[in-house]
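Hi support team,

I submitted a single chain yesterday and got back a structure, but I'm not sure I'm reading the token output correctly. Could someone confirm the output below corresponds to the sequence I sent? I've pasted both exactly as they appear in my results page.

Thanks,
R.
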Amino acid sequence: MNGLRVIQYLTTLVFLMAATACTTSVEAPAGSELETLAKSPNDQREYSTFTLANDLQVVLISDPTLEVSGASLSVGVGSYENPEEFPGLAHYLEHMLFLGTEKYPEANSFQTYVQENGGFSNAYTATDHTNFFFQIGEGAFDQALDRYSDYFKSPTFDKTYSDKERNAVNSEWSMGKSDDARIINRLRGVTANPEHPAQRMSVGNLTTLVDQGDTSLYSAMKDFYQRYYSSNNMKLVLFGKQKSATLQALAEQHFSAIANKNIQPPVVSVTGLTDLQSGEHIYYQPQKPTRQMVIEFPLKNNSSQWRVKPNRYVANLLSSEEPGTAAEVLRKKGWIDNFTVSDRPDYYGKDGIFSINIGLTEKGIAHQDEIIATVFKYLDLIRTSGVDSVYYQEYKAMLAKQYEDLQVPNPLNQAVHFSQVLFTLPAQHLNDAFYTYQQFDAKAVKAVLAQLTPQRARVWHISPEAEVDTKIPYYEGQYRVQKFDPAELDRWQTLGQTTELQLPAENDLFSTDKAQVVDASIMQPRQVVDQPGIEAWLVHSEYHQSEHGYLQVMFNTDLPLKSAKNNVMSDLVNRIFALQTTALRDKAGRAGIGMGIERPKNNHALTLSGYSEKHPLLYQRLLQRWVNMAFNEQEFTIAKQGFSDWLDGRAKEEPSRQLFTELNRLMVDPSWTDQALANALEEITLEDIKQYQNDLVSDNRVRIFAFGNYNKANVKEFASITQATMPNTWQQQGRYFAPVTKPVIGEHTNYRGDIAKTDNGLLQAYYSDDTSLDVAAQLFLLNSIFQQAFYNQLRTEEQVGYVVGSSIDRIGDYWGFILYAQTTNTELADLSDRFNQFVADYWPELQALDNAVLEQLRATVIAQINQPPGNFYEEYPKYLNDFYRGNDKFDTRARLIKAIKNTTKAGVVARYKALMLEQNAYRVDVELQGTQAAQPAD
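Hi R., thanks for writing in. Yes, this is the structure output for that exact sequence:
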């Protein structure tokens, strides 16, 4: 419900564009040897590693199906190495680095080159590393690497941008200072060992990034670069369709000249959480309405034990939702609505944290002692009876099956991940480390459990009701720390004695057997069931036919759109059903089967994914529960509170997100304001929900979409299960598609609202009334060349906003072009004037556009659309938009490619002139005025 309605394949293209399929002529250096890395038998990519003469370790990912290439380089230094005098210096350096080099002095020249060749780039600063990555059309990879690598050889650090980037960093800090996740992360530093660098502010702002005495910020930044940016403190990953030898040659050519200063990579030697930080409550009032308890334990860094996975062993048992487990018992009492476990053993460097994350209900707020006692008792049960090779064998078998059928990730995401973990993981195990479970190490498991004791716990109480007394440095909100009272420990032990718990049983949904894989014979969606009230479509995977299947059963109805009350009830019903099926979904998920309760296009849907053998059985179980849902006051109350919290949280999102929420409300009919939804929520009774669900299952059309490892008989079985399970009162309807209002050319809607934020937000949208895909093609190519110029001018040069961008939108069959920005320092009227001025100023630049640039972008877009999906789960979404829209030809993709091929520069220029300059469009402006005073930077 984020208001971003650009269809899936276009959303992908906007951010993940590729280029032509020509290859570089670079040859591998003679005598170079590559070491091959382990990989899943289901992974067709080739992985290899080698080390350059300057001690820079490189990993290569070769995949002949890719139409893009890219790189990720991580430097082994992050915010933990910020000098005390300059908090945020590592992040500031990240911003300053890509502002020109001796060979390419123009600021943003690399970003512009990448964008002109259908790609994108970005960077981030973590506590222990800084990462720089990009993706581009394969044909431009060599030249892009020449520019990219030069930043690590001869950056100019253009001083004219020093203050501008200080402002950019400050804007980034301002955006995040009210974000609960960032605040909690900050509190983990504030409440840690005072000697640990986590105590220091990491992002930086205008207060911290200033000259200190005789030391200027600029000189400190350059010294930081000289000290840490050494080739032996870097990890590089290259990917593309090129052969490994060619990628190796590119690495040799472009990265061998990075200076090796033979530095000692920085290591944090100070313990983050000592005994002094154990045994305490941490209270925090969140900025968004949420109720959480986190029972956190200091954990020695045991990352080196990845082969025997003691942390994961404990987490796997702790998080189970099987009958009698802590999570299941607490849910049944109505005290919690979420229970997960995570471990980050290197969070502070030499030590980390093991966390039990619990979502509290309003009822649960009054029972926090009982919840803590139940968790501690369950940990005791695991200590006494849960260290058993039986659990190891089951978990090992699950991991082995997942690895054998591994779905390869997006190549850029994979490259970024590899370049990060190379600092701590042997390159040979980049692919299999997560799935390796070499042996059952009871000693290692017991060592972890010995650290998870009540006396060592740090219990976080995150709720609006939390009593707090101390401001959080540099961030919004307050907190309070209170040591455990010895009486509390006794009370928790006593309370735990009254709760009966048991360890999880064997997972009967998991099987090590391989299911029969259906031959891929239906390569275009085909209707295999057409009967009153039910239609079913089947298509096989062209590239990844395996044991996996994806099933969506949609209950197609206009019921959720009849009123604000109905729209809220559609959400509540799904929330209640999710609560009721938590244990089943958890068990299925551990067995490699995903189960979803969704609301596609304001309909209701049940989904199954993953290993398909037991899908008929699970669908029958789900559907029986769905049709015969029983409602109680406890679950109804939890669902209502969840929806209310979601509404309140949406009002506190960043302006850049709220802009699209309001645009969605303005463009979609029917739609309701958040206040109207809140009012409707207050009116809904338990009887209303019962009636809504009865109406839903009694009056609809069931639309089934099946993809992957099913045959016609399987799909007909799903239809038969549906027919047999639906109620006797079922009124079998025809298809329903929500109506779309045609944009009225010449009209201008201006929405202005106040938001409880310090920043302002502005969005301008221009919609055409032409439904042809020619408009989509023109606007997409226009956006591909417009967005970087818009960003460079307003964000980099003028600093009028930190979030600055453009995109395309689709409402029904109508297409629009959108400009947006979030700003900390510009009034809305001035920002609107600046938008309008840029649109006018860009006109001659667009007219002068080199046809070669447009041709390159055209080839990029078509190559990306045609690129084979990397895994099973990237393949089926291309059909869903046509399924939702009732396009039984499923030909939007092919027609879009044809439209892009036929698009000319004259067409793009004419579309811009008509839509943007002559305002031959339906114009929508969304202006959001921040009403909160800016918080002092310190």
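A quick pointer for reading it: The chain is about 40% helix and 20% strand. Let us know if anything else looks off.

Best,
Support desk
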